[in-house]
Write a structure and sequence with these properties.
The protein is α+β, with helices and mostly antiparallel strands. It has a domain of about 140 residues: Pnp Oxidase, Chain A, CATH 2.30.110.10. It is built from six helices and ten strands. Strands 1, 2, 3, 4, 5, 6, 7, 8, 9 and 10 form a ten-stranded antiparallel sheet that branches. A hairpin with a 5-residue loop joins β2 and β3. The radius of gyration is 22 Å and the shape is elongated.
């Protein structure tokens, strides 16, 4: 179970999925072998709509419908405990911050040219309406032969945003600064996510479940 301050409720989790636009579909074969394919998605009611290349063995590998998970991951990076305000003589492990949503449901394969044609146009229109309106029928006819449709129910959603919400404001500022100093797009995006996340810190530094400040150590001033 996630700590409550890291848990994403259903609606924020769905908004995160929409922002990501694509995730990794994971299914298991009868022998336990795992297949995973990155695919863009469109919401259609309580289903995720996708399409997959016909030559991809993933859709051929198992009997469908079957249970599946689809994983959506945002910016993530290493968080050093050197940015924590800790009492003298106390140490805690560094960590990794990230946002991830996993959708659990049942996947159905639809080998239907009209269905996949509509799904492809719908996906294109989501990101580029002008291009979707200009797609030629001859191209769509050829393309629909080269793909199969994938529909996945949204039965359960697990969302976690581990963004240092349990650290004090001063610590969070140092964490964001350290990330931005790394000069990578991933670290900078994670810093933005951390800055936007609400703080749930206690009035004294949070030391984690494995370590506690000694009772004779006075609390740090903030």
């Amino acid at each position: 179970m996630n700590p409550h301050y890291f848990t994403l409720d259903r609606e924020p989790a769905l908004e995160f999925v929409k922002e990501q636009g694509a995730g990794t579909l994971v299914t298991a074969r009868a022998d336990g072998t795992i297949d995973a394919t990155v695919m863009p998605i469109v919401f259609r009611g309580d289903n995720l709509i996708m399409h997959m290349a016909r030559f991809n063995d993933h859709w051929k590998s198992s009997d469908f419908p079957r249970a599946a998970a689809m994983i959506f991951t945002g910016a993530h990076d290493y968080i050093t405990s050197r940015d924590y305000d800790l009492p003298e003589g106390v140490s805690v492990a560094s960590t990794w911050d990230y946002t991830q949503v996993v959708i659990h449901g049942e996947v159905t394969v639809l080998d239907d040219r009209e269905w996949v044609r509509e799904a492809a146009v719908e996906l294109t229109a989501l990101w580029d309406k002008e291009e979707a309106e200009n797609l030629e029928e001859k191209y769509l006819e050829r393309a629909s032969k080269a793909i199969v449709g994938i529909s996945m129910t949204i039965d359960r959603i697990e969302g976690k945003a581990k963004l240092s919400q349990n650290r004090l404001p001063g610590e969070r500022a140092k964490i964001s600064s350290t990330l931005r100093d790394r000069g990578t797009e991933r670290a900078s995006k994670l810093a933005e996510d951390i800055d936007a996340a609400p703080s749930t810190a206690r009035r004294v530094p949070f030391l984690g479940g494995l370590h506690a400040a000694k009772k004779n150590n006075p609390p740090l001033a903030h």
